[in-house]
Amino acid sequence: MTIAIDGPSGSGKSSVSKGVARRLGLAYLDTGAMYRAATWWCLHRGEDLADQTAVAHAVRVMPLVMGLDPSGPTVHVDGTDVGEAIRSTEISTAVSAVATNLDVRAELRRLQRAVIEAERTPSGFAGGRGVVAEGRDITTVVAPDADARVLLTASEEARLARRSLDVHGTADAAAVEATKDQVLRRDRDDATVSQFQVAADGVVTVDSSELDLEQTIDAVLAVVEQVTGRVVGPRHGS
């Protein structure tokens, strides 16, 4: 089974996708982390992010290894664990310059499709059971033939509060304001090269504005059952 989840920044894609993958015993692929890793790699090499040709070349030779365990996903570049570094403010500020490079997107989409295909084989992390893949382009470009495709949305207020909690440990007014530009600018930049704010045909929208994490996971699992006709296990608390 392949489950594809997209949505705007702060909608809960990563937490929900990991939760769904854990519940179903599937691998987990964070494609957003791949763009962050590419940004880290280019900065590490001293590339000018405005030089799109040089950045695209750097990404094509990037020695990236994605760990697919939903309980502890990892990101290594050239043997270095960059899982923490790619969440820094420096990377968050710079990633749009890399993520809007069309040649970079083409290369990372190729890698993403390769991971998804590998998870359909017994040699994959989940032994062939499949993968939950989340991030830009997943529902429409990378895995349009996924068994279930979900657009996870939430109100701007809810998204900013969640991201503030994640980054600053609080959702008070100052933390929300400090996070606002980063979240909204990233979505605005990404929207120039990817459609993730309105569900495409065949993609089911789940609004998590009034839901907690477990309720949102349950809602996504209900969509999976609905569109695949396969019972995928008990809900939280049942």
From TrEMBL:
UniProt signal peptide: none
Gene Ontology BP, a term: pyrimidine nucleotide metabolic process
Binding site residues for ATP: G7, P8, S9, G10, S11, G12, K13, S14, S15
Origin superkingdom: Bacteria
Compartments where located: Cytoplasm
EC number(s) reported in the record: 2.7.4.25
GO cellular component, one term: cytoplasm
Main location: cytoplasm
A Pfam family assignment: Cytidylate_kin
Database matches in SUPFAM superfamilies: P-loop containing nucleoside triphosphate hydrolases (SSF52540)
Catalytic activity: CMP + ATP = CDP + ADP; dCMP + ATP = dCDP + ADP
UniProt keyword annotations, A-Z: ATP-binding, Cytoplasm, Kinase, Nucleotide-binding, Transferase
GO MF term (any one): ATP binding
Residue span(s) of domain Cytidylate kinase: 3-225
Xref: InterPro entries: Cytidylate_kin (IPR003136), Cytidylate_kinase_dom (IPR011994), P-loop_NTPase (IPR027417)
Family: Belongs to the cytidylate kinase family. Type 1 subfamily.
Protein name: Cytidylate kinase
Organism expressing this protein natively: Cellulosimicrobium funkei
Lineage of the species this protein comes from: Bacteria, Bacillati, Actinomycetota, Actinomycetes, Micrococcales
